[in-house]
Amino acid sequence: MAKEHSFFNDVYEVVKLIPEGRATSYGLIANYLGTGMSARMVGWAMNAAHGLPEVPAHRVVNRNGLLTGKAHFATPTLMQELLEQEGIEIVKDKIQNFKEIVWDPMKELEI
DNA sequence: AGAGTGACCACAC
DNA sequence: TGTGTGGCCACTC
């Protein structure tokens, strides 16, 4: 454990910065962190983020805006519920206006 | 130390 | 929601 400067920590920091009503994708985070970071690693980090309530993993979806990780939440519907609560429209586990609500750290944080 | 796996992404068919 | 394959890096056995 000893978090130190693991990759996960960086991912968590970015995810925590995601504003309400917005969402981002694994690839965007990976692209933002760059450095050998791959989208799979972001997913892996999220897997470790399971016990971190401070990390809104429900705001992280795949590039299509599809809630691929919903199965990993407490309940399969929890992810959608949380997102809808923030005003995000979801149909069939997919964010409708994803490209409009997407929060790209590379643009928002401007490296 | 080699192989398998993963909450992905991009490309080809 | 099309399906299949390769690639990416870290972790586990």
Automatic annotation (TrEMBL):
Q: Does the keyword Chloroplast apply?
A: no
Tell me the domain of life.
Bacteria
Keyword DNA damage carried by entry? yes
Q: Which UniProt keywords apply?
A: DNA damage
Which residues are in the Methylated-DNA-[protein]-cysteine S-methyltransferase DNA binding domain?
A: 7-88
Protein name listed in UniProt: MGMT family protein
Species of the source: Reichenbachiella ulvae
Q: Name one Pfam family in it.
A: DNA_binding_1
Give the InterPro entries listed for this entry.
Answer: ATL_DNA_repair, MethylDNA_cys_MeTrfase_DNA-bd, MethylDNA_cys_MeTrfase_DNAb, WH-like_DNA-bd_sf
